[in-house]
Amino acid sequence: QVQLVESGGGLVQPGGSLRLSCVASGFTFSISPMSWYRQAPGKERELVATISNRGGITNYGHSVKGRFTISRDNAKNTVYLQMNSLKPEDTAVYLCEASINGYWGQGTQVTVSS
Description:
Low-confidence stretches: none
Number of helices: 0
Structural class: mainly beta
Shape: globular
Order of helices and strands: EEEEEEEEEEE
Helix content: under 10%
Strand content: over 45%
């Protein structure tokens, strides 16, 4: 069955960095664009970044542009989100989504606080 498993979240101080991973299985990862979303308490789910199936095209949400980088390794069925210069407003559950089938992972919590 299709599975998306995120990891790498945690507690980090403002200005710090984290690298999230999402490992996919159960479908042909290399043909699916992938996305990272985030959802903070009381807020709507927000698109953070997307990447094309081969990684040549990326797009970012306005609030993270220049700080976050999405990448993928199709040999490892994994999509990454490198997050730098983190701010308290980046605190949220981060989820990955496979565009080809609409499946979601369970999410990983990122908390930015001093």
